[in-house]
């Protein structure tokens, strides 16, 4: 591994054995069932020729690859993001890098001390106080008692838990938990910091604080690997980004390019249907001349749900919100008039969008609750909405053509 590379994954793969137990609707498994299953497995395994998955003779166990043939390098001082759908393999990758689990294939080389924050309160003992857990977690991360003492006041101040420092952490809220856990991991000077999607537990001010701290960490020549579904945080923090899909790396490059590819993959149609039981049955979006029309079919409203309004946000392909609105913002809000289900139609008149591809988020709710939300669920191709004379490539800056006026006067 070259001097600048601190993380290298070479042909990395991780497989799990997934059990498909017969009688999946049973509420418990008796000892005889366990013994019978063990006996069947002992009879030998066969190879499924169609999928290449290992299964037992009764097809009750399947081999599932959470990661497959993953290759990448991260250099010292880099901040690299990892994005992908739920189940894409992001958390598995971080667990392998953190040596929590062993890879099934391939190898990982890591140069330097690594601290990981993969779950809220990882490594904390619920019966111990915040003070005691700082020392315990610091020791787990390989720090000496003197190092922990030197950083102790800074950790406590960052976590904002001074009043509860001698309270058992089992009584902490989830927000307090994550603040203290992040503070310990970030302040104990690891060469490599690995952070999973945990910052969403904290409030907006704390998330901003954490992002700033990770920037400081990278500015000191240390490396950060950051997993998040927050594309704004990813763009702000990470110059480069990895896109995982079904355990494989689909893209690795500049963050804005990778995010655009991710959004295109997850929103490839202008209509979507939802399973039975969802408040919304289907959504369709289309351009109609100089208008955007969004239509929803929704199911019967539960008795404890107020008549909700419907809202939308239009995003660029990079996920940045451009504009949005909600029927609840009207002076006289229009709402559904029946509890038996119905149809909602949103008409956006003359939005100044330049030709291109856009994403649409939809939600239903009232002033107090959101009953349905599907972010960036639809794709929409816009064309000829703005006069063609403004479509010259050299005049296209951003996604919206603003209404402007200019005035020039002679100098006095």
Account of the 3D structure:
- By secondary structure, this protein is an alpha+beta fold.
- It folds into 2 domains: about 65-265, Rossmann fold; about 270-395, Distorted Sandwich (Coagulation Factor XIII, Chain A, domain 1), CATH 2.70.50.60.
- Helix content is about 25%, strand content about 35%.
- It is built from 8 helices and 19 strands.
- The protein has helices spanning about 30-40, 90-95, 130-140, 145-160, 175-185, 205-220, 230-235, 255-265, and strands spanning about 5-20, 45, 55, 60-75, 80-85, 105-110, 115, 190-195, 225, 240-245, 250-255, 270-275, 280-290, 290-300, 310-315, 320-325, 340-350, 355-365, 370-380.
- It has a 6-stranded mixed sheet, sandwiched between helices. A 4-stranded antiparallel sheet has the order 12-13-14-17, with no helix packed on it. Strands 16-15-18-19 form a 4-stranded antiparallel sheet, covered by helices on one side.
- The model is unreliable at about 45-55 and about 390-395 (pLDDT under 50).
Summarize the structure.
This protein has helices at 31-42, 90-97, 130-140, 145-159, 174-187, 204-219, 231-237, 255-266; strands at residues 5-19, 45-47, 54-56, 61-75, 79-83, 105-110, 114-117, 192-195, 223-227, 240-245, 248-254, 271-273, 280-288, 291-298, 309-316, 321-326, 342-349, 356-365, 370-382. It has 412 residues and is α+β, with helices and mostly antiparallel strands.
């Amino acid at each position: 591994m070259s001097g600048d590379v601190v993380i290298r994954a070479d042909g990395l793969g991780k497989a799990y054995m997934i059990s498909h137990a017969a009688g999946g609707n049973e509420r418990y498994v008796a000892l005889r069932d366990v013994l019978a299953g063990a006996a069947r497995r002992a009879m030998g395994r066969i190879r499924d020729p169609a999928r290449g998955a290992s299964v037992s003779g009764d097809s009750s166990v399947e081999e599932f690859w959470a990661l497959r043939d993953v290759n990448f390098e991260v250099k010292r001082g880099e901040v690299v993001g990892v994005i992908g759908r739920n189940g894409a393999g992001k958390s598995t990758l971080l667990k392998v890098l953190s040596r929590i689990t062993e890879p099934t294939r391939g190898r990982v080389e890591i140069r330097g001390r690594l601290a990981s924050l993969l779950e809220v309160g990882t490594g904390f003992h619920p019966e111990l106080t915040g003070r005691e857990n700082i020392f315990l977690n610091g020791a787990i991360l390989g720090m000496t008692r003197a190092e922990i003492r030197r950083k102790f006041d800074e950790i406590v101040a960052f976590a904002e838990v001074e009043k509860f420092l001698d309270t058992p952490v089992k009584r902490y809220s989830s927000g307090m938990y994550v603040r203290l856990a992040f503070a310990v991991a970030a302040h104990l000077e690891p060469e490599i910091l690995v952070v999973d999607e945990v910052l969403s537990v904290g409030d907006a001010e704390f998330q901003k604080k954490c992002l700033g701290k990770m920037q400081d960490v990278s500015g000191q020549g240390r490396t950060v690997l950051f997993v998040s579904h927050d594309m704004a945080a990813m763009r702000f923090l990470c110059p480069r980004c990895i896109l995982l899909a079904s355990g494989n790396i689909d893209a690795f490059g500049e963050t804005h390019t990778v995010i655009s590819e991710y959004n295109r993959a997850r929103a490839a149609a202008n209509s979507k249907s939802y399973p039975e039981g969802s408040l919304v049955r289907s959504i369709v979006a289309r351009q109609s001349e100089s208008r955007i029309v969004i239509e929803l079919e929704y199911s019967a409203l539960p008795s404890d749900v107020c008549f909700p309004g419907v809202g939308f946000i239009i995003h660029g392909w990079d996920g940045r919100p451009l504009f949005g609105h909600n029927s609840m913002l009207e002076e006289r809000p229009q709402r559904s008039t029946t509890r038996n289900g119905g149809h909602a139609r949103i008409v956006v008149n003359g939005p100044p969008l330049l030709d291109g591809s856009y994403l649409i988020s939809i939600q239903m709710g009232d002033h107090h609750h959101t009953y349905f939300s599907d972010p960036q669920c639809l794709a929409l191709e816009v064309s000829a909405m703005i006069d063609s004379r403004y479509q010259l490539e050299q005049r296209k800056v951003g996604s919206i053509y603003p209404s402007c006026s200019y005035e020039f006067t002679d100098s006095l």
